[in-house]
Amino acid sequence: MSTRGVVYVHSSPSAVCPHVEWAISGTLGVRANLQWTAQPEAAGQLRAECGWTGDPGTGAKLVAALKAWPMLRFEVTEEPSPGVDGERFCFAPTLGLWRARTSANGDIVVGEDQLRSIAGTARAGEQFAHRVDELLGASWDAALEPFRRAGDGAPVTWLHHVG
After folding, report:
1. Any residues with CB less than 8 A from the CB of 106 and at least 6 apart, and which?
2. For the whole model, what pTM was predicted?
3. Residue 45: enclosing H or E segment and its boundaries?
4. What is the pLDDT along the chain (163 residues), one digit of tens a residue?
5. Three-state SS for 1?
6. Who's near 82: CB < 8 A, 6+ residues apart?
7. Domain ranges in the chain?
8. Residues 147 and 10: beta-carbon distance below 8 Å
9. How many other C-beta atoms lie within 10 A of the C-beta of residue 21?
10. Residue 25 burial by CB count (10 A; 0-12/13-18/19+): exposed, middle or buried?
């Protein structure tokens, strides 16, 4: 059983790009030779995307490898597979890591217990709304959106996990 996903490196200093490729290569067991392009939202920074296939849980392994460079901005997605939820990870230097489960169409899945906890502890509607925004990764979306737009139409490299 395998799944697939995408690694979006939204911004990386040029000196770190080879390390990013080595981290992805080491995780997938296949050489990653990404097509780096300028990131107009951050002068001197580069961006790249690569699709991947691998075992369920590979997305989390890619994130663990990429977190070694806290100056990166990146996202990793993993599609659902039989018996395994999909996942989405976002990392921004000022915010750290955010992680959520995703449905088959890519929507964020918020669990019943998470909602009950918020409903039971939020003192007002505004606090409830803020806590739901946290669950949905609103701060990460706001921080990464300008970097995402800069990648529209950029080349994507496909990598396949060597099992």
Report:
1. 77, 86, 88
2. 0.88
3. strand 45-54
4. 899 999 999 999 999 999 999 999 999 999 988 999 999 999 999 999 999 999 999 999 999 999 999 999 999 999 999 889 999 999 999 999 999 999 888 899 999 999 999 988 888 888 899 999 999 999 999 999 999 987 555 555 555 555 5
5. coil
6. 1
7. 3-160
8. yes
9. 19
10. middle
